[in-house]
Amino acid sequence: MMTLLLIGIFVTELVKYGVWFKKIGGLSFTRCYLGGIVAVSYIVLICMGVVNENTLLFFWNLAAVLMYGMIMKCSSEKRVIYVLQALLIVICLGEIINMMIRLIGGTEWWNDWVELRTNYLINNVIVIFLLLIISLVREKVKYKYVKGNEKIRQWGMYLAVIIMGIAIFLTVNGFQNIVRYVEDKRISTFSVLISFLSFICIACLVMMVSYIFNENKRYKLYLEKDMLLLETQKNMYETMLAKNEETRKFRHDIQNHLICLYELADFGNLEKVKNYIRGMEGSFNSNYNKVYIVGNSVVDAVLNYYISMLEKGVKVSVDGICSEKIKMTDAELCTVISNLIQNAEEALNRSAADNKYLNINFNSIDRYLNIRIKNSITENAVHLDNKNEIPKTTKINNEEHGIGMKNVKSTVEKNGGMFEVKIENKEFVVHVMIPLDIE
Prior knowledge:
This protein is of the alpha+beta class and 439 residues long.
């Protein structure tokens, strides 16, 4: 009877961890014959009495999870992580159910070894049932990411961590209270050891949460920069495709233009030839200078995108060379250039003044890339924030807007550069210096 009970416990252990790894973890297995050999060998040891009721139940968990660790189809590092994860979560889930059974059935349920093992078998069956329900819910309910729920999930995680910390603290406090009423040196030593380890765990938990919070914040910032870079590059390619399409049409028509010019010249009508050439020149100029190339692919993408969005009548001047060797990542460079050019583009398109212009200059001096951007503004259109030395936003929702220049300033200064803004003679001037990566 005891042998059959122990075999039943081991089989449910195998099923329990199998459901976890396969259904919830989504893992696949290889060399399953090795797992079968280990499982059969363990059952034989039970029948022989080598593994009996006196064996610690933790070894039953360990034997099952190590068997799956041998046949997982993944790298060695991931196997270790999956095994530890399974042990911690499944054992904790089992203990939760165990305590619920004790609360319902009473402590007399634990009178002898047979009842203890029977309780453990029932516990395993319940855990398997719960894991199957969880896996079924995961398959039926599709997760949908909703940006508005991000704060709820974040605060939910913090609340869970706080509850964990309080639970650990109360457990330690309970051990210390037990020592006051039980005069046993071993219990006292054990309580001190548990308290010591628990407080270390609380400190590590707090540091881990802080680290995760900072890493998520940094990752989110990098993700936003990468998305901005990809978007500007995509817009650059679209602009260049439009330019190529216009050039292709112009080349397609050039043969007809030449035929007309030849006919007009053959009749000696020089005045019509001149007028026709002027018309061609205007058509050619409409396609000319639509693509700006300063030597840096990121800067080229940003320039051509935002300059193409300027209204007609804005005089644009772009000169100089922008080096590729900049001590700044492409994402950071995109953040700097895109915010500066976007601000100039928006200001010029909002302005109703005449003779609007945008001047952009790049040059390298003393291991620094100098970027100077000037655009015309109307009087009192822009005011500087004396505290941050950046322009104040003129948009209604100033909490969501006005952060572009702050990002530029912080990104430039973080990389050892200089950022300066001036307003003079109805002109908005931004001067940025970025260190070059020159040995």
